[in-house]
Design a protein that fits this description.
305 residues; alpha/beta; FAD/NAD(P)-binding domain; seven-stranded mixed sheet
Length: 305
């Protein structure tokens, strides 16, 4: 039964998981396997791993696996195990009187134990015109966001692993890619740099500082500054990949926990806990560890062999 506008439904869960990326899914599967009362809150399943062109360092996949394939595997596993999930977005999190209070677009949820695997958010350029251009869909942060646009030309700002991965994915689709690097070199893995420099569909320019974005009707204009002059690029879309930050904007200003606190039943997992590394294998292990700490009683010395 739907409620009227502005009226939120109240719910309670013994263990709530915020997010449904690899870390949260890993934890949810283990907790559900143990018959514990859990609820996952996330508008979608997969997290940022779904944007990866290919996961090449994940044990058990000798030929690698694409991000979309891995994301679909997570989704199918959640569905087949009937893991309860609220398809909603968390907007506020607080801790009062020994319980976690979670506000979403539709519900007010309380929990005894909380696992936060909310991942990361892209860092924006912070230049004039960027905010105004976002609704038009011509400035994005992942290649998948360009599917409906089907661009012929894309400028990518950034020179790390994500930027190189995006450049290679777009070049594989026949898109002409220009990478704008703010420094004098790329910061990606050598293997990715070699692939980028060897690709005929990718050009790379260094020591350029983006200064302004000017949206057009069917294109977008990016202004950059070099040591010698200002440079103007006209393209179908701009993909910004200059880094990511932890997605904890929903925390109350006085929320007492910023890292994992098992004694208070709060667990920060995945990219939200390790933003520097952002590795799928780490996230999977992180989620499993949280689930084991929650579900496995502490063994005394008498249990040891």
């Amino acid at each position: 039964m739907r409620r009227g506008p502005g009226v939120k439904q109240n719910r309670h869960g013994e263990i709530i998981l915020i997010g449904a990326g690899p870390a949260s899914v890993s934890a949810a599967l283990q907790l559900h396997r143990g018959g514990l009362d859990i609820l996952v809150i996330s508008p979608e399943v997969g997290g940022c791993v779904g944007y990866a062109r290919k996961l090449e360092n994940l044990a058990g996949y000798p030929a690698g696996i694409t991000g979309p394939e891995f994301r679909e595997g997570l989704r199918r596993q959640m569905t087949s195990r009937r893991i309860p999930r609220l398809e909603d977005t968390v907007t506020h999190l607080d801790f009062k009187k020994g319980r976690f209070h979670i506000r979403t677009d539709e519900c007010l949820v309380t929990a005894h134990t909380l696992i936060v695997g909310s991942g990361t958010l892209p860092i924006r350029l912070g230049i004039p015109g960027e905010k105004e251009a976002l609704p038009g869909g011509r400035i994005v942060h992942h290649p998948e966001e360009l599917r409906t646009l089907a661009p012929d030309r894309v400028v990518i700002v950034g020179g790390g692993d994500v930027a190189c991965d995006a450049a290679l994915a777009l070049a594989d689709q026949g898109v002409r890619v220009r990478m704008v690097i703010r420094g004098e070199r790329m910061r990606a893995l050598d293997s990715l740099v070699k692939q980028v420099t060897a690709s005929p569909g990718i050009s790379v320019e260094y020591s350029l500082l983006p200064t302004r974005i000017l949206p057009g009707t069917n294109e977008i204009n990016l202004e950059c500054r070099s040591r010698e002059k200002d440079i103007h690029y006209t393209t179908d879309a701009v993909l910004v990949a200059i880094g990511r930050r932890v997605n904890l904007d929903f925390l109350s200003p006085d929320f007492p926990f910023r890292t994992t606190s098992p004694e208070h039943r709060f667990f920060l997992v995945g990219d939200a806990a390790h933003p520097r590394h952002r590795q799928t294998a780490m996230a999977l292990g992180d989620g499993m560890r949280a689930a084991m700490e929650i579900s496995t009683p502490i063994r005394g010395e008498s249990d040891a062999f």
